[in-house]
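The following record pairs a protein chain with its ligand, flavin mononucleotide.
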Amino acid sequence: MTNETLSLISSRRSHRAYTQTPLTQEQIDALLKAAVESPSAVNRQPWHFTLVRNQELLDELNTAVREQMMKRNSDKRSPRFADKDFHVFYHAPAVIFISGMPDNLYTPIDGGIAVENIALAAESMGLGSVILGMPREAFLTEKADAFRKALCFPEGWDFVIAIAVGTPADTKPAHDVKENRISFVD
Ligand SMILES: Cc1cc2nc3c(=O)[nH]c(=O)nc-3n(C[C@H](O)[C@H](O)[C@H](O)COP(=O)(O)O)c2cc1C
């Protein structure tokens, strides 16, 4: 079977290079509408979305993530850190940070659903995206509070996930699908 939604799901990729073309206001509005329309447990909507276009702030976060990662053993670090030109946000023109309500069992799941809604909405508009867990490292540093403030996280809320969005400047094949991840019980 195929339809427009299934095709979008199949064509989405994680893009790790972007042009500097800024998002239009119409694109931003549509991405954030898709985000807030996501389902959430008990409709708690335990999320806050912060759209960042400030490249200086993204550079500061990138530096903090890199420094934090370098404190780890190399086997616990993404191989991407071996590349000196690696940038956590891949120089995307916009990154959406999702911060989450504390003490709520489903905050990470609800945040994950919302970030995928954003990814698929981006794909539907001819934009590319990459979901980003790595920025979490910046919130383990002594600058964490300053970053939470700069990113407008509500008081007491913390980083859940982020997603970079822009016009892709790379192409990528579909990921390999691991075997034995589906069972049928009739
Ligand atoms: C929760 C989560 C966190 C991720 N964090 C990162 C990240 O920090 N940096 C990155 O380059 N890709 C990140 N990814 C992208 C995955 O590497 C990617 O989805 C996976 O390799 C499959 O490739 P595809 O998205 O192109 O299908 C993340 C994906 C998910 C779902």
